[in-house]
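Researcher: We plan to redesign the surface later, but first we want a full-length starting point. Tokens attached.
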């Protein structure tokens, strides 16, 4: 498995890394949340192991950021032992909680069991059509042919709604209700936004690679998902 370890105590970080690599896991080491988020923008991981007391951001906040865009397995390793704090961590979206001091053998056993049953998670990078289209949802960035394109707030929301539900057709009213908050918005404005999105994605309405018009019904995303980056 690919692991991301977020731990500012270098001895603990190195210990977990050493044992995980001995068990055949691929490990990326980080010491703060900002560095972790940078790695998550560019690499797909199976498991994140994180402390809660980090130098630049509390682990709970890091978990919240990740959970907005991914259901990747999050294992917390922390010295916080208060039951209410642990409950809060699970409410933020953590999947497991290990209390310091811990048995490294127990942690490795958990990873081994997890490896057998881990499910495919939502990646933090979405790539389509042999990498021609890349979405970085944590940063709300969209790249076409590796060039960053500028989308307005509503353009991005519409595109992300379609991408998150690939091959599902959304009517104009459905896109309005999920992507807009303005009461004055009207259904035909969706056509304008989709036209602008297509232009920026270098997509063709007649022979679409990404956004297909389902006549009489609405729009759907048809990009071909890349299994690997």
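Model: Full-length starting sequence:
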């Amino acid at each position: 498995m690919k692991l991301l370890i977020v731990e500012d105590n270098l001895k603990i970080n190195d210990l977990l890394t050493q044992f995980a690599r001995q068990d055949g896991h691929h490990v990326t080491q980080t010491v703060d949340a900002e560095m972790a988020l940078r790695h998550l923008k560019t690499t797909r991981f199976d498991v994140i192991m994180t402390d809660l007391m980090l130098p630049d951001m509390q682990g709970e906040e890091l978990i919240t950021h990740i959970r907005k865009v991914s259901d990747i397995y999050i294992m917390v390793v922390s010295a916080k032992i208060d039951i209410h704090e642990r409950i809060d961590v699970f409410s933020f979206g953590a999947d497991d909680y290990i209390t310091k001091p811990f048995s490294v053998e127990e942690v490795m056993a958990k990873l081994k069991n997890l490896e057998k049953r881990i499910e495919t998670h939502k990646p933090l990078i979405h790539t389509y059509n042999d990498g021609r289209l890349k979405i970085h949802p944590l940063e709300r960035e969209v790249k076409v042919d590796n060039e960053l394109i500028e989308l307005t707030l509503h353009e991005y929301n519409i595109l992300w709604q379609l991408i998150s539900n690939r091959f599902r057709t959304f009517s104009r009213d459905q896109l309005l209700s999920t992507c807009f908050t303005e009461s004055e918005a009207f259904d035909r404005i969706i056509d304008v936004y989709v036209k602008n999105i297509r232009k920026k994605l270098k997509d063709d309405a007649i022979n679409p690679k990404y956004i297909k018009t389902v006549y009489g019904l609405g729009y759907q995303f048809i990009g071909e998902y890349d299994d690997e980056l």
